[in-house]
């Protein structure tokens, strides 16, 4: 009987590993396609959704009520989406650009992805945040490759407006987040540096935006030794979606005991609770962000990182 050499066995093992990786990617891609194919617009639950809101009121008032419902989260999100659909699709009361955004913020990611994918093909995506939302949906369904391609398309198609540099920086920052999620630290580092270079080009600078990106870059390259931090409470802040997010980190016996967050974010999808819980559980600020609250999530992570880094003894 012939025996295989170690070299050949290792070659076969490598090939099997590649095939397994392809199979995993195919399953993920299939899952994303299945999720989108299963979407029914409007969904069956929408017709049964109760709302006491007077839909005779103008859209400019309704949108504020919708945002308030989205802030509550949970079951209120479905009422918010129902009102959005009623006003923008059935009554055609306003421009459609807010339609997929509220579906996304209501955590109906497959439905939001269907709209954004259609708009991507029709070249109707005009804002950096729309590309970021679609990429976030794709990442949620395990499609980092699609997310990166969406962000690259966004970089090519961004309109030449006074906000272009800031929008470019945001898309590069988002690309870096995707690479970091994939475990590709080298490419994540490249993209974070691109974002920082663009932030620095702004006439007045975007120091607070850059500080969050800088914290994420540092988390890639450095490791905090919490055991070297004296017991106590340490506070720092970072820019969120609407203002500064403040994190107070309590260290006890060389461990992160808890993280308390103060913020004025309108919609945080529970990030102000779940991100601190993840940080304590994993004993690091380098935790996954919450989909539909990535800006707030990264602000909490950055503020926690800065608080601990400042407190760490040399």
What's the SSE blueprint?
Layout: H1 6-37, H2 44-48, H3 59-72, H4 75-90, H5 99-105, H6 109-121, H7 128-140, H8 144-157, H9 164-182, H10 185-201, H11 207-221, E1 232-239, E2 244-252, E3 255-262, H12 271-282, H13 294-311
Antiparallel strand pairs: 1-2, 2-3
Helix pairs in contact: 3-4, 4-5, 5-6, 6-7, 7-8, 7-9, 8-9, 9-10, 10-11, 11-13, 12-13
Describe this protein's structure.
This protein has 314 residues and is mostly helical. The protein has helices spanning 6-37, 44-48, 59-72, 75-90, 99-105, 109-121, 128-140, 144-157, 164-182, 185-201, 207-221, 271-282, 294-311, and strands at 232-239, 244-252, 255-262. Among the domains are: 158-222, Tetratricopeptide repeat domain (Serine Threonine Protein Phosphatase 5, Tetratricopeptide repeat); 224-311, Alpha-Beta Complex (Sufe protein. Chain: A), CATH 3.90.1010.20. It has 13 helices and three strands; from the N terminus they run αααααααααααβββαα. A hairpin with a 2-residue loop joins β2 and β3.
């Amino acid at each position: 009987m012939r025996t295989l050499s170690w070299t050949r066995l290792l070659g076969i093992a490598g090939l099997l590993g590649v095939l397994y990786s392809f199979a995993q990617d195919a399953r993920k891609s299939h899952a994303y396609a299945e999720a989108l194919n299963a979407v029914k617009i409007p969904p069956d639950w929408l017709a049964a959704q109760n709302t006491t809101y007077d839909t005779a009121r103008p859209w400019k008032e309704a949108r504020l009520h919708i945002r308030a419902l989205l802030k509550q989260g949970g079951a209120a999100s479905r009422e918010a989406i129902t009102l959005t659909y009623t006003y923008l699709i059935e009554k055609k009361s306003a421009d459609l650009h807010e339609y997929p955004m509220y579906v996304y913020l209501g955590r109906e990611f497959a439905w939001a992805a269907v709209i954004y994918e259609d708009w991507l093909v029709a070249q109707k995506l005009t804002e950096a945040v729309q590309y970021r939302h679609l990429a976030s949906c794709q990442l949620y369904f395990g499609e980092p490759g699609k997310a990166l391609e969406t962000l690259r398309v966004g970089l090519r198609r961004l309109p030449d407006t006074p906000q272009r540099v800031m929008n470019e920086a945001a898309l590069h920052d988002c690309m870096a987040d995707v690479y970091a999620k994939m475990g590709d630290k080298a490419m994540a580092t490249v993209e974070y540096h691109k974002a920082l270079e663009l932030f620095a080009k702004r006439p007045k600078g975007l120091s607070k935006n850059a500080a969050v990106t800088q914290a994420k870059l540092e988390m890639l390259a450095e490791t905090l030794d919490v055991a070297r931090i004296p017991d106590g409470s340490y506070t720092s802040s970072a820019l969120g979606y609407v203002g500064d997010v403040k994190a107070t980190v309590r260290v006890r016996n060389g461990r992160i005991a808890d993280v308390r967050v103060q913020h004025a974010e309108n919609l945080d999808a529970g990030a102000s609770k779940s991100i601190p819980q993840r940080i304590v559980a994993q004993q690091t600020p380098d935790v996954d962000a919450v989909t539909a609250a990535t800006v707030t999530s990264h602000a909490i992570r950055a503020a926690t990182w800065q608080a601990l880094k400042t407190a760490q003894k040399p």
